[in-house]
Amino acid sequence: MKSNRPPVIAIDGPSASGKGTVAQEVARALKFHHLDSGALYRLVALATIEAGIDLESELRVYNITLNIKASFHSGATWLGTRDVTDSIRTEAVSAAASKVAALPKVREALLGRQRAFRQPPGLVADGRDMGSVVFPDAALKVFLTATPEERAQRRYKQLMEKGMSANMALLLQDIHERDARDSVRAVAPLQKCADAVEIDTTAMTVAEAVSKVLAQYAQALRAP
Ligand code: DC
Questions:
Q1: ∠ at Cα 78 (48, 28), nearest 5°?
Q2: What angle do CA 137, 138, 142 make, to 5 degrees?
């Protein structure tokens, strides 16, 4: 489906599939804007935890979502005037994000906010439902995957590099649990759209995955 609006490249996939890094690099190469939609769910989760609100209380989390002062600038993620780039990446916030992301009213409240990122010259958006729900008219839809073992390994390496401790078996278990939660929820579950191109990055470097997405985008632009 062609659109006259700024083009969108939608990159969806499971956690730790590398979609965030790949999306960022593709956006840089094309000088497009970048939306890390998972960061929005993480911000809602952090604000909910800090307000002492039950993560499953849909109306209350919805109210937090409507009033959240989220912004992305200066290379950081902000909640009001606070730099929360690192605080939204903790395991506790990751688990909480996956819970608030299952609430239909929260997803609905974030729709307009995500679509507002679609500005000239274009947008690379990564998440779970970028191609299926938020930008169904995306010029290119990519479903980025890697085996659970490879994703656990990447997460392990990241944590080690940050000087944090990690346990492979627990990381793998966490990845399986999060995949299950993100895939079976009733609203906007993680799934590959019929019109998405699947790229398995298990044996690829980031640079290879980025080239592959750029090549697919060039091909999509040439398509009639
Ligand atoms: O991509 P991530 O790991 O930062 O995402 C955090 C959580 O938010 C994850 O559990 C899935 C959820 N999420 C979602 O439901 N829809 C999106 N578009 C992006 C993230």
A1: 125
A2: 135
Ligand 1 binding pocket includes 97 (Cβ within 6 Å): yes
Determine the structural domain holding residue 99 and report its residue range: 8-217
Residue 2 domain flag: no
The CATH number of the domain holding residue 75 is: 3.40.50.300
CA of 132 to the centre of ligand 1 (A): 14
Q: How many domains does the structure of the chain reveal?
A: 1
User: Is residue 224 situated within a structural domain?
Assistant: no
Is 94 contained in some domain?
A: yes
**Is the CB of 114 inside a 6 Å radius of any atom of ligand 1?**
no
Query: How far apart are the C-alpha atoms of 126 and 128, rounded to whole Å?
Result: 7
pLDDT along the chain (224 residues), means of 10: 83 91 97 96 97 96 96 93 94 90 95 97 96 96 95 90 87 88 76 91 96 97 85
The predicted structure's pLDDT at residue 3: 65
DSSP state of 130: I
Contact 75, 165 (CB under 8 A): no
**CA–centroid distance, residue 101 to ligand 1 (Å):** 7
Give domain status of residue 3, yes or no: no
- Give which of 185, 120, 174 is closest to 152, Cα–Cα: 174
Q: How many residues does the chain have?
A: 224
